[in-house]
User: Fold this.
Amino acid sequence: MATYGRTTRQGLPRVAGGEPWPPVFESAVAAAAAAPAPVVEASAPAVTADAAASAVAPAAAAAVAVASTAHRVRRGLPRVPGGEPWPPASAAPVAAAAAVAAAPATPPSDVAAAVGRAEPHLAPAAGATAGAPVAGGGAALRRGLPRTPDGEPWPPAGSAPARPERVVAAPVEVAPEPILEPVAAAVAAPVAAPAPARTPMQPPRRPVAVAAASARPAAEPWPKLYGPYSRAEWAGALFIGGFGLLLAATGVVVVVNWLLGLGPMQDFIAAYPGEYHLPESAPIGIPAWIGWQHFFNVFLIVLIMRSGLQVRTQKRPTAFWSPRWNPQRKISLSLWFHQSLDILWLVNGAVFVVLLFATGQWMRIVPTSWEVFPNALSALLQYLSLDWPTENGWVNYNSLQQIAYFLTVFIAAPLAAITGVRMSGLWPKNAKTLNRIYPVEWARAVHFPVMLYFVAFIIVHVGLVFATGALRNLNHMYASQDVVNWTGFWIFVASLVVIAAVWVAARPLVLAPIARLFGKVSGR
Assistant:
């Protein structure tokens, strides 16, 4: 009876570009199973010597091939629901056992052992299990986890298929000469060229994480921050903000020009051109002392703002100053410089106010008529429309300028002085009544906004000076003459050079020798 090998079901490969898994091995056992082997039933007549001799050689070759290639395969879960564990536990083909039984040179026990190591992917032949098991017994299966909770390990014990043994005729003795040579040849052929051993499965190769990390480009350093933003973010914010301001200014100019084109607004501009006449006793022209006072005021106010910002942002002063009358009291050298400039500025301001009222120049910056307010509105509308009012600063300022100068000299400057004194060391600390009436928190809340007002005033003031006739205006303030030439301009440039030089020189190395003239300078 012939047996048939069972075809192994193959799935996807285990590695990219590999063979389907599990691999198919073309072994000698499959060849032996495919070849028909003569089997004699118990009731059949005895075979002849020639027939027996022809049956011994294939059987011996199949037995040797099985012994050299068979091995046990680890079994896992089934591939289909309710099926056997995969790969199935395969028994050697019955044809190999029958052929071994007919061979006189191979003991039955050796054949059974060889059959027990047959390839697991070969299925047992149908109907070949009828009969008693061979001496070796059934193949022992590896048992795993149970299929149901609290069940028996799977597969159950004793489920290994027993190797079938068929009743065959007793071997017939044959002449050794014609038998030994074919048998030797048949045996030597598989031994000399054994089936290639199956190579172990190689796990799929994956890129090493370390290599990938080393190949990854280094991350760029975080950009340096200037305040809350980096340099590129500040540039973008300035560009967007400037563009937005330009659009807003364009819209304001368009709206104001449309408004001034109306009849009632034209009558308003004609009635209030932007300035009113000063009293008859008002002086004409700008004397030289006003020019010098103007220069000293600019010089001091710029350095005061610079030192004030330094005091506000400085965390660890490099030098300290102590007064001679109180060595225990120490302030930073930057604060001493700031307060010294404040004192000089107050002295210069006091001299300026005294000279204003002594010479009658106060009428140029102090409003003397209620017409100042409608004229100031008219001047503002004309500035916004870019059709600026006609002015002659040598004789009279327009109403908007007059109000701005009045606020700066008589409102903003005293506020800056009063709040600065409250925060300085000149204020008596033990005066409980004064401290309760005038808390230091109020002074701090007012002092910084006043400084911002001075910054805005300087920007607008300088812009209008250059936009409404730079040479004439600079001659008014620096050369005290009502002509158009470059004298006032070069004096203005020289004053800027002096201010810049003092700005750069205002460092502890230069300030310390000056501060020692009025007290003690120390590093701690």
Observations:
- The first strand starts at residue 144 and ends at 146.
- The beta strands are 144-146, 153-154, 225-226, 229-230, 320-323, 331-332, 519-522.
